[in-house]
């Protein structure tokens, strides 16, 4: 937080110490009471709230707010993870993960690959004969920087990678599907983090409704200009 020029309230310094002393992974069925209390009170601290609001300035999982807001439920002794709790958790993809499933008479093989720079060389040449490629882009990352290189915008990196895939000799005969997700987080960010601040060539009006309307119309009426 000092890097953001933010401070905790004095009574929360000890609570910060409890949280910072935790191991990277806890093998417990529920949060210990002192940890749950520390997390809950830290989340009420104005400094922490402001840090999360400015999360584009550092590396923070975009599900952090969801979990902070669910602390009371998740710290209960009777807590069981919901579908949303599981879906919003994140495990970094490394290497190539294969999933096989059937729909009717058809068998599908789905390969999940890591998008980080260090992972690409492991898979880019492996899929010459795939039927389709689904390229996922997080819309909410338009104002964030890469974990590997904090001088590079994540959305710009995704555009560069998408361009290289579309023009790669390995995917000449492959159908490519562009999937834009996390539009809810995108909508939350736009009022205080305008798209034009990060993409100067964006000439649309500044504002949430305009940016979302542009995406909606492009989705319903795609053109070659996209």
From TrEMBL:
- What Pfam families does this protein's entry cite? G-alpha (PF00503)
Q: Which gene encodes it?
A: CGP1
- Entry annotated with the keyword DNA repair: no
Metal-binding among keywords: yes
Q: Which GO terms describe its molecular function?
A: G protein-coupled receptor binding; G-protein beta/gamma-subunit complex binding; GTP binding; GTPase activity; metal ion binding
Per UniProt, Mg(2+) binds at: 93
The alphabetical list of record keywords is: GTP-binding, Magnesium, Metal-binding, Nucleotide-binding, Transducer
What SUPFAM superfamilies does UniProt report for this protein, alphabetically?
P-loop containing nucleoside triphosphate hydrolases (SSF52540), Transducin (alpha subunit), insertion domain (SSF47895)
Locate the residues binding GTP.
Answer: 62-63, 87-93, 112-116, 181-184
Q: State the protein's name.
A: Guanine nucleotide-binding protein subunit alpha
Q: Which InterPro entries match?
A: Fungi_Gprotein_alpha (IPR002975), Gprotein_alpha_su (IPR001019), GproteinA_insert (IPR011025), P-loop_NTPase (IPR027417)
Concerning CDD domains, the annotation shows: G-alpha (cd00066)
Give a GO cellular-component term. Answer: cytoplasm
**Entry superkingdom:** Eukaryota
Its GO biological process terms?
Answer: G protein-coupled receptor signaling pathway; pheromone-dependent signal transduction involved in conjugation with cellular fusion
Q: Which organism is it from?
A: Thanatephorus cucumeris (strain AG1-IB / isolate 7/3/14) (Lettuce bottom rot fungus)
């Amino acid at each position: 937080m000092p890097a953001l020029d933010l401070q905790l309230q004095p009574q929360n310094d000890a609570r910060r110490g409890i949280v910072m002393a935790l191991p990277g992974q806890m093998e417990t069925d529920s949060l210990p009471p002192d940890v749950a209390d520390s997390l809950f009170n830290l989340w009420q601290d104005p400094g922490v709230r402001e840090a999360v609001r400015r999360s584009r300035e550092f590396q923070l999982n975009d599900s952090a707010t969801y979990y902070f807001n669910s602390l009371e439920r998740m710290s209960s002794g009777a807590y069981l993870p919901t579908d949303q709790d599981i879906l919003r958790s994140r495990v970094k993809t490394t290497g190539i993960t294969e999933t096989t499933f059937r729909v009717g008479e058809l068998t599908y093989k789905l390969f999940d690959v890591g998008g980080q720079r260090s992972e690409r060389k492991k898979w880019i040449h492996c899929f010459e004969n795939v039927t389709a490629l689904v390229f996922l882009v997080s819309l909410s990352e338009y104002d964030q920087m890469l974990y590997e290189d904090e001088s590079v915008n994540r959305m710009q990196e995704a555009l560069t990678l998408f361009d290289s895939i579309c023009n790669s000799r390995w995917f000449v005969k492959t159908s490519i599907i562009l999937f834009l997700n996390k539009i809810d987080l995108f909508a939350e960010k736009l009022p205080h983090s305008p798209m034009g601040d990060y993409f100067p060539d964006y000439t649309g009006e500044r504002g949430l409704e305009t940016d979302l309307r542009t995406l909606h119309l492009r989705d319903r009426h795609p053109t070659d200009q996209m």
